[in-house]
Amino acid sequence: MAGRPRFSLGTVVLDCADAHVLAGFYRRLLGWEVTYSEPDWVLVRDPDGGTGLSFQSEPGYQAPVWPERPGEQQKMLHLDMRVDDLDEAEAYAVAAGATRADFQPQDDVRVLLDPAGHPLCLFLH
After folding, report:
1. How is 1-40 classified by DSSP, letter by letter?
2. Which pTM was predicted?
3. For residues 20 and 39, what is the distance between their CA atoms, to the nearest angstrom?
4. 105: cis peptide before it, omega within 30°?
């Protein structure tokens, strides 16, 4: 091959039980817009541009456990979100549908779980 072809990350896809429920949570949390929707797949994007988030319904979806435990469903990824104020951001995310994880590994990071159980970490800028 003469050179590397051009790649750019268009979206990160999160599997879940209900794409519309999870897309609604992230739409509320981030203030992003739904830009494409099918019965089992939804794309949300920042109106200012950048990489989007997509959500795909999977009939056999099993939520990951946090923290990970041998023999249980492991997480495949998690999202890190920069915030200005941890307490304020956590309260907003919980009001939007997140839950605070029981295990918090650091004082300067908050681990939440989105409605599908994916870990979501909030950290200061």
Report:
1. --SPPP----EEEEEES-HHHHHHHHHHHH--EEEEEETT
2. 0.91
3. 8
4. no
